[in-house]
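Training component of the fellowship. As part of building independent skills, the fellow (R.M.) carried out the full modelling exercise for a liganded target. The chosen ligand was nicotinamide-adenine-dinucleotide. The inputs are recorded below so that the supervisory panel can assess the work.
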Amino acid sequence: MAENDDLFAGADVLITGGLGFIGSALARRLVGLGAKVTLVDSLIPEYGGNLFNIEGIRDSVTVDRTDVRDTAAMSMLIKKRQFLFNLAGQTSHLDSMTDPVTDLNINAAAQLHILEAARLSNRDVKTVFASTRQVYGRPQYLPVDEKHPLNPVDVNGINKLAGEWYHLLYNEVYGLRACALRLTNSYGPGMRVKDARQTFLGIWIRQLIEGKPIQIFGDGTQRRDFNFVTDVVDALLRAAASDKANGEIFNLGDTEHVNLTELAKLLIKLNGSGEYQLIPFPNDRKAIDIGDYYADFAKINGALGWKPTVALDEGLKATLAYYRTNHAHYWN
Ligand SMILES: NC(=O)c1ccc[n+]([C@@H]2O[C@H](COP(=O)([O-])OP(=O)(O)OC[C@H]3O[C@@H](n4cnc5c(N)ncnc54)[C@H](O)[C@@H]3O)[C@@H](O)[C@H]2O)c1
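Fellow's submitted model of the complex:
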């Protein structure tokens, strides 16, 4: 990444969802690179934002508690920015089924408003949108590349797909430089661990630290790939820095895949104690489960030189250590 680092020194950067897991890690990195960083986050209590995520850089960033659905405020915020990392999102798949319209308003409508604001007042901004592997639905082949059919299995997947395509459309039609990364399971310090809304891995870490058994839904044979948050941040920065990314979609992923039982065993080993139990899939989760998934990330590797660098055991060790020390800031 070193060759692009200079680009961000002194740059005016807006991060929506900046108090969330990935947004705050990105902010930390950008502050280190000398960028002028503004974080937009509504801190809706049920969502993943947490002021503790920016501990240590609070005085180096501007925090704006605007909701991205506030179109007038977002129009003002977008002006004169050089980079927009568009990460604010309703991330719970289950919540998208029980409250689909909120998911639509945040993950699709607000994205369109943000792009309209950019079209009207700041066509020079470079935008990177955080999309999700959920848009593919149940894989028809593995690893899943960007040519895989799109067949979302929940409302969240459909709305994220719309959010993503608005970005590509505005790139194509209006020349607003924008691209989207389809993230796979991302993990690390700052991830949501208080409940299972974001990812099963978060609640597993909490269960382990609380001395409770890790609960695996189903038979534990589902395979997944994982990216440590610093690798996700590196991908976001590479996508922002390169005009080769404009109008493109890129998968993130890892060549290391594990099934859920292997993952639970690895966590228990790294923790030095713990146990897991297999429990039947709750019906509401089973209905929207995608089965095995891991990504082919050759496209971003070829175009932007990105590949994951943090091995799963290394990343999990760092994540466990973080929550052992800081859990009081994430659950009580
Ligand atoms: N973490 C993953 O494994 C993963 C996987 C695929 C995609 N993504 C995408 O990456 C992005 C960031 O994810 P994350 O893991 O950091 O989640 P997160 O929940 O930690 O961060 C999202 C942030 O957005 C904020 N937010 C939500 N709605 C908002 C609104 N209406 N206005 C302003 N702020 C709002 C939340 O308060 C939160 O701080 C999301 O768009 C998510 O869909 C994440």
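The panel noted the following from the submitted structure. The radius of gyration is 19 Å. The longest helix spans residues 100-121.
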